[in-house]
UniProtKB/TrEMBL annotation:
It comes from the Eukaryota. Residues 23-32 have a biased composition (Acidic residues). This is LRP chaperone MESD. Coiled coil: none annotated. Pfam families: Mesd. Belongs to the MESD family.
Length: 188
């Protein structure tokens, strides 16, 4: 049996417990629940193409929030990055894609999607833009039209890229790198 406690003596934990008790019996619609409490959408395995692993990711990310990193080519200022990515966001908005944009460096931005099922369509749009150097989605780096010729090739995963860089750093004895999104790349 729980002790009777005076309401004036309640602390934050007691108030949170009380709120949970009240909400337990409420009929809250599925759309109003926070994302981590919603049941996952059922996956239709008939739509999965075994030749395309991206089709599995599309179906598993459907209805979930997803973020992708976009790099603007050249050496833009933060204001230029803001203007360019704003144009991209406007184009996506006109195509009925709900995308939020956050600038994280002088040439980097995060595009946040409410429904991750559309991420690969948005990625295809972005990599076809003239000033897009690359798009990072689910650990995969996809080079864009604005990428340098040396970077264009098959899409790479982050760990392989980092491993190659570490090996090159050991050989050349280069300066330690910091963990900034805006670090400048050195071509050797």
């Amino acid at each position: 049996p729980a002790k009777k406690k005076d309401i004036r003596d309640y602390n934050d934990a007691d108030m949170a417990r009380l709120l949970e008790q009240w909400e337990k019996d409420d009929d809250i619609e599925e759309g109003d629940l926070p994302e981590h409490r919603r049941p996952p959408a059922p996956i239709d395995f008939s739509k999965i193409d075994p030749g395309k692993p991206e089709s599995i990711l599309k179906l598993t990310k459907k209805g979930k929030t997803l973020m992708m990193f976009v790099t603007v080519s050249g050496n833009p200022t933060e204001k230029e990055t803001e203007e360019i990515t704003s144009l991209w966001q406007g184009g996506l908005f006109n195509a009925n894609y709900d995308v939020q944009r956050f600038i994280v460096g002088s040439n980097r931005a995060i595009f946040m999607l409410r429904d991750g099922g559309y991420a690969w369509e948005i990625k295809d749009f972005l990599i076809n833009q003239e000033r897009c150097a690359d798009v990072t989605l689910e650990g995969q780096v996809y080079p864009g039209k604005g990428a340098e010729e040396s970077e264009k090739g098959k899409n790479k995963t982050k760990p392989e890229k980092a491993k190659k860089k570490k090996d090159a750093d050991k050989k050349t004895g280069s300066i330690k790198e910091d963990n900034r999104a805006t670090k400048q790349r050195e071509d050797l």
